[in-house]
Specification:
The protein is α/β, with parallel strands linked by helices. The chain has one domain (about 5-130): Chitinase A, domain 3. The protein contains three helices and eight strands. Strands 3, 4, 5, 6, 7 and 8 form a six-stranded mixed β-sheet that branches. A two-stranded parallel ribbon has the order 1-2. Helix 1 (about 15-25) packs antiparallel against helix 2.
């Protein structure tokens, strides 16, 4: 079991929580490692109304800048549902280990996640830009 300090508190909107819960159930047989990790994240998340979520928290559709604490490499990706994933365009599926790790984490928080080969990685969220309800962007 991983130490609790590897798991910062996370928050999810009720909509994201409901959609992700349905999604993980649909892939439980195909992606058991991601299913297990994302289910644990959903279980420990604080679920709130969309209007209450802090601008700095990663939600679905958010553009996220983060740093790999092992390599020091910084990346910016957009967290998306699997059908919108496109690594070349920087759109990472929530059903990947890194996507599952990012959901609900806030700006400035670090989280440890595990690659599909079992390698531990720690990332720190540097900035979150969430899509606004009207199609614009909100930076945090």
């Amino acid at each position: 079991m991983r130490p609790a300090d590897q798991f910062p508190p996370i928050v999810l909107t009720a909509t994201d929580h409901d959609r992700l819960s349905a999604l993980v159930e649909a892939v439980s047989d195909k992606l058991p490692d991601v299913y297990e990790y994302l289910t644990a994240e959903l279980d420990r998340a604080t679920v709130i109304d969309a209007g209450e979520i802090a601008l700095a928290a990663v939600t679905m559709g958010a553009r996220v800048a983060f740093r790999d604490e092992v390599t020091g490499q910084e990346r910016t990706v957009t967290l998306v549902y699997p059908h919108d994933a496109d690594l070349a365009a920087g759109r990472v599926s929530v059903l990947t280990p890194i996507g599952a790790a990012l959901i609900g984490v806030a700006n400035g928080q670090s989280i440890t996640w595990y690659t599909r080969t079992g390698e531990a990685k720690t990332l720190t969220v540097l900035a979150v830009e969430r899509p606004a309800e009207d199609g614009g962007a909100v930076a945090a």
